[in-house]
Amino acid sequence: MFTLEIDGVAIAVINGSEEVANDLFTCDGFKDDIQTMKSDGKVLWNGTSPLKIRAATEEEVEIFEDALAEDDSEEDEPFEPDAHHAQASNDDKASNDDESDEDDEEDDADIVFLVDIDEDGGLDS
Q1: Residue 40 phi/psi, 5° resolution?
Q2: How far lies 68's CA from each of 31, 43, 47, 65, 78, in Å?
Q3: Residues 6+ apart with CB under 8 A from 48
Q4: What is the 3-state secondary structure (H, E, C) of the chain?
Q5: pLDDT tens-digit profile of 50-83?
Q6: Structural domain boundaries of the chain?
Q7: For 37, phi and psi rounded to 5 degrees?
Q8: Sign of the four-CA dihedral 10, 14, 15, 21
Q9: How far apart are CA 123 and CA 64, in angstroms?
Q10: In whole angstroms, what separates CA 93 from the centre of its chain?
Q11: What is the rounded CA–CA span in Å between residue 55 and residue 85?
Q12: Percent of the chain with pLDDT over 90
């Protein structure tokens, strides 16, 4: 598992390979999202700070696993945005590979945010 860190703050954990983590955490769509998402009233990323991707710590892995277990236990309940969990897929890369069945499995990844996301997510209404 890998963690996205911005300005020394662990923002999110992903359960993909390092390549998948790099691809998803640095893709334009994700970067757009973290520029609009807020935690404690501040945007997660200012658009200029370096995005550091590193191996997740044991504590971060535990938080990730707990969040997924909680998400699984709430499958029958309506989605709550406070879950801070997202399913990500790198479909562009998979569609370009000859071994797409294997790559589909490898490119699917779960992302868990390690910071509390403001309820409005920072998106304009």
Answers
A1: 55, 40
A2: 23, 24, 28, 5, 15
A3: none
A4: CEEEEECCEEEEEECCCHHHHHHHHCCHHHHHHHHHCEECCEECCCCCCCEEEEECCHHHHHHHHHHHHHHHHCCCCCCCHHHCEEEEECHHHHHHCCCHHHHHHHHEEEEEECCCCCCCCCCCC
A5: 999 999 999 999 999 999 888 777 655 544 444 4
A6: 2-113
A7: -75, 145
A8: negative
A9: 25
A10: 17
A11: 19
A12: 60
Distances (CA, A) of 80 to 25, 49, 71: 23, 30, 10
The sign of the dihedral angle between the CA atoms of 57, 34, 68, 99 is: negative
Q: Tokens 């658009």, residue?
A: 47
Say which residue the tokens 């700070």 belong to: 49
Instruction: Give the Cα separation of 101 and 117 in Å (integer).
Output: 34
Q: Which residues contact 35 (CB under 8 A, 6 or more apart)?
A: 43, 44, 45, 46, 47
Amino acid sitting at position 89 = S
Q: What is the value of pTM for the model shown? A: 0.72
